[in-house]
Amino acid sequence: DAGVTQSPTHLIKTRGQHVTLRCSPISGHKSVSWYQQVLGQGPQFIFQYYEKEERGRGNFPDRFSARQFPNYSSELNVNALLLGDSALYLCASSLDRGFDQDQPQHFGDGTRLSIL
Amino acid sequence: QKEVEQNSGPLSVPEGAIASLNCTYSDRGSQSFFWYRQYSGKSPELIMFIYSNGDKEDGRFTAQLNKASQYVSLLIRDSQPSDSATYLCAVNVRGGSNYKLTFGKGTLLTVNP
User: B68 pLDDT band (50/70/90 cuts)?
Assistant: First the structure.
């Protein structure tokens, strides 16, 4: 079975631009989360979606937004890019059944975003 | 106090030795705990999860949880050079009615041949 897939793999943007990152969860997984990881740090939680509804939001500015589609794939959008947005963006999915939030999350390979 | 804390290392052990990685967390309500391995330039890979106090073993890996002390650890027996990676501790931390998976900064492990 395919794991979590993310696209694109790498992306180079300039300050002020907008970017859309995409994620397809493992088949059967309805929960998708997004994380930002900068060098030397652990992943930082951005958003979690379950059944197309936002379940949680981390401490990120409103420039960051996301959505989940009926097929459970997801997009992360970042507007007005800043140099500090340069990072590895990770998507994870889990077999969350809605009433429990303890299921392990499985990560995709990530999108490496560089802002010039 | 940070929500999840780990020693950043590096932790260096000889091949065949036991590597011990430690993690503390601040939210007493946390119920689920995870260890991920991350090779340089790669994404995190789940290696263990534990929900109950005590030990959980899977092959060469043992996760240990002590909720009273808010402490979780990972032991790697018979360490191999291929185990050299950053090990991330992750804890489900309550935020309102929902939980968010919160990571430590990771511990860099080097296994020397």
Answer: very high
Given a cut of 70, is residue A49 above it in pLDDT?
yes
Mean pLDDT of B40-62: 96
Q: Give the closest residue to A93 by CA, choosing from A63, A65, A76, A73.
A: A73
Q: Does A13 touch chain B (CB under 8 A)?
A: no
pLDDT exceeds cutoff 70 at A76:
yes
Q: What is the DSSP letter of B28?
A: T
CB of B107 less than 8 A from some CB of A: no
Lowest-pLDDT range of A35-39, B6-10, B20-24, B88-92 = B6-10
How many Cβ atoms are within 10 Å of B31's Cβ, its own excluded? 15
The distance from CA B95 to its chain's CA centroid, rounded to whole angstroms, is 21
**Is there a contact between A42 and B105 if contact means CB atoms under 8 Å apart?**
yes
Give the C-alpha separation, B91 to A105, whole Å: 11
What's the pLDDT at A102? 79
Q: Rounded CA gap, B14 and A11, in Å?
A: 39
What phi and psi values does residue B14 have, to the nearest 5 degrees? -80, 155
Distance CA A93, CA A50 (A): 10
Say whether residue B90 is in contact with chain A using an 8 A CB cutoff.
yes
